[in-house]
Amino acid sequence: MLAFPSDSPLGRLLAAPMRPGRVTWLGLRPARRATMLTPSSVGLIAQRGISGDRYDSTHDGPRQVTLIAAEDLAAIAAFLGQTGIAPDLLRRNVVTSGINLLALKDRRFRLGAALLETSGDCAPCSRMEEVLGPGGYNAVRGHGGVTARIIEGGEVAIGDPVERAD
Description:
Layout: H1 9-14, E1 21-26, E2 41-45, E3 49-50, E4 65-69, H2 70-79, E5 94-97, E6 108-111, E7 114-121, H3 127-132, H4 136-140, E8 146-152, E9 154-157, E10 161-164
Parallel strand pairs: 4-5
Antiparallel strand pairs: 1-5, 1-10, 2-3, 2-9, 4-8, 6-7, 6-10, 7-8
């Protein structure tokens, strides 16, 4: 799964300990362009997605869950000269705090009771100009979070830990 041998200097750095983060916000997209729902907990279904989310499907796609760090929301806001960005504007499912999501690249991690595996970067879409205003797309570039597949389902609630599993 890892791109570097675990006994190489870079492999050892990538496998170094990291502090766990926390889930700070949850969002469901019931339909395309629908108002996001913000429950206090959600059910993750293995190989499908989040129960009630529009991306819940019967195929094992790479974008079952989208995550973004609160720290990246702050960076996006700073790039736009704003004091904050509401998480629902970026249409992600999970906002985390205290963990660098890019450090989970090519790894499995625990999100509450569920086991996930990163599947890629969550690039901004063209709607960012519409939602965030001029410069929105470029503000999100490199700060849009990650996508993940659900390996083992389970409940996830606000306040749950986010930690590397391997």
